[in-house]
Amino acid sequence: MRLHRLTATAFGPFAGTVHLDLEDLSGSGLYLIHGPTGSGKTSLLDAICFALYANVPGDRLTTSLRSQHAAATEPTTVVLELTLAGRRLCVTRSPAYERPKKRGTGTTTEQAHVQLEEYVSGRWQTLSSRIDETARVLDDLLGMGLDQFRRVVMLPQGDFAAFLRATDEERREVLERLFDVTDYVAVEQHLTVQRQEAQATLAAARAALAGHTGRLTELLAGTDVDLSELIEPDEPLDHLAPADLLSLVDTIDTALEAHAGEIMALVDDARSRAKSERVSLEVARRQEERRRRGHRAHSVLDTLAEDADEHRARRRRLARAREAVAVLPHIGAAERARTSVTTATATRDEAMASLPEAGQDLTTLQEELTDHDEVLATARHESQRLERLVRDLPRSTAAIDDREETVAVAATALTAARTQAEETESTRGQVQRAQERLDQLTPLVTSLTELSTARSSVAVLRDEVRSTTDLRQSAHESVLARRERVQQLVQQRLDTMAGELATQLVDGQACAVCGSPDHPAPAPAVHQVTPEQIETARGEVETAEAVLGRARDRDESAASRLGLAAAKVEDLVLTVTRIVAENDLLDIDAEQDLSGPLVDLEEQRARLVDVAARRDAVDQAVESCASAVTRAVTAHDEATAVLAEARVRHEQVLQEQADCTRRLVQALEAHDDGCPCGSLVPPDGEPPTPGGAGAPGAATEPDLQRTPEALAAAVTAAVRGHRADLAATDRAIAARTDLDHRTTTLDEAEGLLAAALAEAAFDDADAVAAAALPRTALAELEQVVDDHEARRAAATAVLEEDDVVAAMQEETVDLDDLGVAAEEARVAAEVVSRRQASAETVRTQFTTLRDHVRRVCAQLGPTAEHAAVVTRMASLVTGTSSDNDKRMRLSTFVLAARLERIVELANERLVDMADGRYELGHDDSGARGQRRGGLGLVVRDLWTSRVRPTTSLSGGESFTTSLALALGLADAIREESGGQEFGTLFVDEGFGSLDQDSLEQVLDVLDRLRDGGRTIGVVSHVTEMRTRIPTQVQVHKTQQGSTVSVVGTTPDVA
Q1: How does strand 87-94 pair with strand 30-34?
Q2: What does the DSSP 8-state code read for residue 688?
Q3: Where does the record place the region Disordered (predicted)?
Q4: Is the dihedral of CA 673, 677, 681, 685 positive or negative?
Q5: Mean of the pLDDT values across residues 943-972?
């Protein structure tokens, strides 16, 4: 893997866009990334991790990666160009973050997104824009997770120093994250679960066997079978061996089967005797019941013989009553027909009273009246139409008056609209002239206002520049003083270094400088300057430099803003001069005080604004007036047209009224001349004379020429009289027809009655009435006769039955004696049956328990063997077995092998960095007596041949060893992930604890890491590293966010 380019925007401490050409930095092979604490050195490495894994190391969340210094509209993006497995890729990734809404107020969440591209055939091609799909592609190519990548590529020295001094359990947690041992842990867990399940299964089988044998003992104790020779009373059955237990169960099964056979024979004998006694008792009871039925039948026949005469009289009476019932309907029908004829005759006579006594036929009269209905219908229609026309005439007259008034109003409105339009047009001309003047004054007022504001800003900025210049000078002097203090402390420490080393000498132990165990003349101890004091002083220098940087930035910013403000004043002076000259407005000198002219111009401009503000309203008023004139003209024309239409309609109504009157008079004359309705005689008077004074509402010619009301009254009278005569004729015809029909019905009813009397042998209707019975009496008589016949038939049938005849001939038996014998036999059979049921229940339960015992005994042996094997294997892989002499878990054993390989690879570099004095070793002694050991590390001192703990290493030794351990771990992970080479590595911090010689040795090792084209980036804020590594990436921290610059090569920085 090789990194080529990194671009980060609004990421971490970087407010803007930072671009690093890592390909350019790789030209020197080794470069330094340095900057103040918190400036963002590690954030550059976090950006690489985020681009590849969508996450960063440590506890930070991806939602906090956005720079707090960035502008609200600046998107957060990381772009990483790299080569993986021979493929040139580009990853563009953005985290989720909050941004202002594009519409409205508040914020919204910008969702995370990614784009993966590959450089193929001279151009970039998109592989994926899905987060999950991109993660799969990168994981396949990298072959490791984020934690592994951080330790292989980033080499964080702080983490490896902690790993060096960690306990076995802490190392186990780290190694489990780096090396996949989940399969081995799964084996441990699987065998542990299998052991628990096997032991539980064995215990359950033994418990089940004990339960079955216990229930078997209880069952056999309640039976009447003698098993004392087979079962010992004080020995539980589950204590027997499985084979002995099965043999005993089979013997008991045989004894119970024999006992069941004996009981079954007794049951069969008792049931047979009980059945015989029960059958004898039932036969005797049935015979006794037959004898009793025969005696009851004889008694019934004797009683019926005594009532024979009465029974025959009732039968005759019932037959005559039934014959009368058949004749009664004909009598009622004849009487109803006679009554109906009488009523119809009266109705006919009443209807004929209003008709002529000697005249034409009723049917002919009805036809003539009907023929003249249409003439009267025409007269009535014309009368109704005339009424409507009379009502319409006043309305048409009023409509003419209304339309004339509307025309007058429209003419007045048209005159007013034209006058208003002329006035608004004049007002619009005045507003247009005021707007032209305002357009000339507005640019001048705006420029004068800006010029006055700019001059005030220039005065304020001049004061600010003087203040920031003083602060910058003071900060510069503070930096110089603190740098001089650091040099003094470093010199003092060098002067007293011999005394400090002398205080660490111990008689008999090797000197850390020369290695001699003898110390003849140690330097005297004096007041010493500690490294912490020097580091504190350096920190104060960095703080002072940061203050100086901020003061410098503020001074430069103030000076820049002052220059911009002065330039703006000059531009505004030229603008004001040009506007005054072009418009010849006022005599204004832009170089003089502008407060007076500006006030005058503002007042004049305010007045013009008020006038010009009316422009839209005036334009709308002009348009409104024009529309009003148009509407008024249209309204006047429409009102004139409507008036003409109303006058035409009035003339039409007058003409239609005259025509309708003429048609109405003609219809009335036609009816009077041809209709016979006037010749009918009313029941109480003389017939009216047509057209005479005696006929109310008669249609005479003088009346018809007088009013429409008189014509309507004449029509109403003619229609009423005509309908009355027609109705009287219809009633007379209907009454005559009904009388004929009812007479025919009477003749038919009397004929049927005579036939029914003859058939039933009755003389007349009175004889029928004498023989008839009411319905209730008839039903009671029928019931008495039927009951008598039924009782005699039933008694005769009983006496004719063969069983009854035979029973009455046999002798009687004692039923009580037979009942006692049957009950005794039944009780004896029940006792024996209960013994048999009990024995069968015991037999069934014993069979179930016997099968359970056989099944459990068959399972017990294999279950015990399986539990023993699984327990032995689980104890072995979990380190609790005596066969595991190291007492080490399987997963720990695998991690120990990985740790041994890491130590081998680390020692290859540690020998050079430590001058061959010491090396690392793997120690598994901690596993003895501990549950999770076997991952210990020790230091083997090759000069003294002693083994010492890693906590005995000094600060420089600890860093050197940690670096070697980091490189060894990186090599081991590369081997684990398929041997992929990483062309870019980073070493993060830790160099401050090295002396000059150790630093040289470490840098030599890092220099050898560049073999094969590998690029090494060292992250450190140690000052000495800047002089040793010329190619540098400098990270600057400011209040506006961090920035990056590159020295020692051609920079490509934004």
Answers
A1: unpaired
A2: P
A3: 676-702
A4: negative
A5: 79
Rounded-to-integer distance, Cα 103 and Cα 695, Å: 95
Query: Bridge partners of 938?
Result: 921, 949
Query: What is d(CA 499, CA 521) in angstroms, rounded to the nearest whole number?
Result: 11
Burial class (CB in 10 A: 0-12, 13-18, 19+), 606: exposed
CA-based nearest residue to 711, from 654, 658, 667, 665: 665
* Token couple for 163: 């790993």
Residues in the chain: 1054
Cα–chain center distance at 333:
85
Enumerate the domain spans of the chain.
1-143+1020-1054, 327-371+675-685+693-773, 373-616
Task: Give the orientation angle of helix 242-306 with respect to helix 815-877, to 10 degrees.
Answer: 150
- HEC profile of 872-920: HHHHHHCCCCCCCCCCCCHHHHHHHHHHHHHHHHHHHHHHHHCCCCEEE
Segment 513-535, tens digit of pLDDT: 566 666 676 766 666 777 788 88
Tokens 């015809």 map to which residue?
733
CA gap 712, 685 in Å, rounded: 26
Nearest in space to 447 (alpha carbons), one of 578, 551, 561: 578
Question: Using one digit for the tens of pLDDT, what is the confidence trace for 677-701?
Answer: 755 544 444 444 444 333 433 444 4
The DSSP code sequence of 627-686 is HHHHHHHHHHHHHHHHHHHHHHHHHHHHHHHHHHHHHHHHHHHHHHHH-GGGGSPPTTSP
State the DSSP H helix or E strand holding residue 109, giving kind and residue range, or none if neither: strand 107-110
Q: Is the dihedral of CA 746, 751, 753, 754 positive or negative?
A: positive
Identify the pLDDT of residue 401: 82
Cβ–Cβ contacts within 10 Å for residue 400, how many?
Answer: 14
Listed in order, strand segments (DSSP E) in 883-1012 are: 918-923, 936-941, 946-949, 984-988
Distance CA(763)–CA(673), nearest Å, equals: 66
Tell me the residue type at 751: G
Tokens 């409509």, residue located: 399
Q: Domain 1-143+1020-1054 is classified in which CATH homologous superfamily? A: P-loop containing nucleotide triphosphate hydrolases (3.40.50.300)
% helix, strand, coil for the chain, step of 5: 70, 10, 20
Cα–Cα distance, 1021 to 35 (Å, whole number): 6
What pLDDT is recorded for position 651?
80
Look up residue 762 and give its amino acid: F
Count Cα neighbours of 369 within 13 Å in the Cβ-side half-sphere: 24
Task: Give percent above pLDDT 70 in the chain.
Answer: 82
User: 119: buried, middle or exposed (CB in 10 Å: 19+, 13-18, 0-12)?
Assistant: middle
Label residue 220 by pLDDT band (50, 70, 90): confident
Q: Is the pTM of the predicted complex or chain greater than 0.70? A: no
Using left for φ > 0, alpha for ψ between -120 and 50, and beta otherwise, residue 686 falls in: beta
Interval 598-644: pLDDT, tens: 666 667 667 767 776 777 777 787 788 888 888 888 888 888 888 88
